[in-house]
Amino acid sequence: MPVGLFRVCLLVITAIVNHPLFFPKENGTVPENTEEIIQKMKEREESLRLEQLRLEKEIADQEAAQKALEKAAVVVEESKEEKVRWDMWTALSMVIFLLIELWRQDFQEGNWQDTGGEEDDMAVLGKAFKGVAFPSKAVLASFYEKRILGTTTDMARMREMVEGFADDLLEALRSVCNRDADMEVEDCMGVGSMYENWRVRKPFVCDLIVPFAPPEPYCFCCQTWCSGDSFPPDEQGYGTIKVCRADEDATGCICDKTKLGEDMLCLLHSQVSSSRPSSEMEDLLCFKNTQYLDANQVMKWFQIAVTKAWNRISHKYEFDLSFSLLDSPGALKIKFKSGKSIAFNLTPVVQYENSDVYFISHFPRSSLAADIPSSTHWFLTFAVYERRFIQLVSKTLPANACHVSCLQILSFLHGKQCSLTGPSGLTNYHLKTVLLHLLQARPSQDWAPENLEARLQDMLKFLEKCLHEKKLYHFFIGNGKVPAELGFPIIFQRAEPLNLFRPFVLRRDIYRKMVDTFHEMLRNMSALINEYTVHIPLAHTNGIRKEPL
């Protein structure tokens, strides 16, 4: 602004100084054309005025632009500060949200087995139970005595007969196998509902597992999904079995990974043993061109070996033996001349290290391993530890405890419902898992025989909660409260909990079928139980009121 005024004043002073009236010509005479000069002076004055106005306008525009720039700078600065504050709050909110989510997951994983002990939580559940009349204690007792109790004796006789025949069959199998080339078969073990005394539906089927090992000098190097290597989420619960020589580890000798010079030899492996032909691995039941044990090859070998063993001892028995199911290679059936038959499953397994956890090639009559990633992936079974846990807990429960009765009744109802509406994703193994959780969560005195009705309600409510959340965790995997007396491997206790309902999260059709089957079972529960219940005199039911859950 001062510079502009100075320029205007300088221009005016210059015009005045150069005016002809101030500096006349030397002759001192006044020009004759005065009017013309005055006119030019007016024009000059007008042009100077216009120039002054233009300059003032430019100065004003510059000042306005300067103010606008200053204002814009202030706005930008304020927006930056506001953005910084917003980003800080956003980041803080995200951190708080992540902390809450991590805490929630840790809380669920740390307390997933304690759900059964929460009375208030159980009371909130039960939406599917509205209007469902639960059978009284007298009706349940009559149903259990008539329909279920009598099956225990039949199971004991069948177990004894099947185990004796299986031992004889495996002994014959060892005699027909080549001890130097074939797998070495060990003694069988009984697992599942028949050996836990809760199977109720006929026909009774015994499940026997047969551990086997490779011939010398080979050994099995087992690797699980929780052993440190990365396994995809859909392979949780699985593992692989690598066939190695006894003088090498699972990762192989360094001579396989390092280029040795022509004049250098590995002291552990000769040039012949360092490169194994693929045919040798296939003879060891491995997948083609790999060292990994193939479940399909194992089952083919086992079927052929069982057939040879039966041909050797068939003359000793007055019945026939055959494979009963095409999709279950280990399913066998004994057929008597009278027309009666006995079915049992003989499944080869591989022991995990020195524990009673086993890699199983397939699950008979089960959808637990329906979507196996490949034939080199083996599912892990904890059936031996499950049986031991039930036996261990049973010693601390009151006499004639109702825990097995609850599982038998629930298994019976589920089986009857599936026979009406077709099979669903829900299996007896899921029902047993529910019982295992509640056995660990509830005090021993709660399983007294007079609490049968209450505990059966607890199992149904726990199952409803799991179906609603699509979460039913494996009892042993990730459970840090497994009794030390069982000698359970610590690696599985420290693993992430395994959700048995995870396959149903993406399979919405199967999940809907499972939920519908559960609801139908609740609605038909009274009718199914009354169908197998003897008439109870009115005197015994006086004072007993059927209340909905």
UniProtKB/TrEMBL annotation:
<keyword id="KW-0812">Transmembrane</keyword>
<keyword id="KW-0732">Signal</keyword>
<comment type="similarity">
    <text>Belongs to the ITPRIP family.</text>
</comment>
<dbReference type="InterPro" id="IPR024810">
    <property type="entry name" value="MAB21L/cGLR"/>
</dbReference>
<dbReference type="GO" id="GO:0005640">
    <property type="term" value="C:nuclear outer membrane"/>
</dbReference>
<keyword id="KW-0472">Membrane</keyword>
<feature type="signal peptide">
    <location>
        <begin position="1"/>
        <end position="20"/>
    </location>
</feature>
<dbReference type="InterPro" id="IPR026250">
    <property type="entry name" value="ITPRIP-like"/>
</dbReference>
<keyword id="KW-0539">Nucleus</keyword>
<feature type="coiled-coil region">
    <location>
        <begin position="38"/>
        <end position="82"/>
    </location>
</feature>
<keyword id="KW-0325">Glycoprotein</keyword>
<keyword id="KW-0175">Coiled coil</keyword>
<protein>
    <recommendedName>
        <fullName>Inositol 1,4,5-trisphosphate receptor-interacting protein</fullName>
    </recommendedName>
</protein>
<dbReference type="GO" id="GO:0005886">
    <property type="term" value="C:plasma membrane"/>
</dbReference>
<dbReference type="GO" id="GO:0004860">
    <property type="term" value="F:protein kinase inhibitor activity"/>
</dbReference>
<keyword id="KW-1133">Transmembrane helix</keyword>
<dbReference type="InterPro" id="IPR046906">
    <property type="entry name" value="Mab-21_HhH/H2TH-like"/>
</dbReference>
<feature type="domain" description="Mab-21-like HhH/H2TH-like">
    <location>
        <begin position="404"/>
        <end position="477"/>
    </location>
</feature>
<comment type="function">
    <text>Enhances Ca(2+)-mediated inhibition of inositol 1,4,5-triphosphate receptor (ITPR) Ca(2+) release.</text>
</comment>
<keyword id="KW-1003">Cell membrane</keyword>
<dbReference type="Pfam" id="PF20266">
    <property type="entry name" value="Mab-21_C"/>
</dbReference>
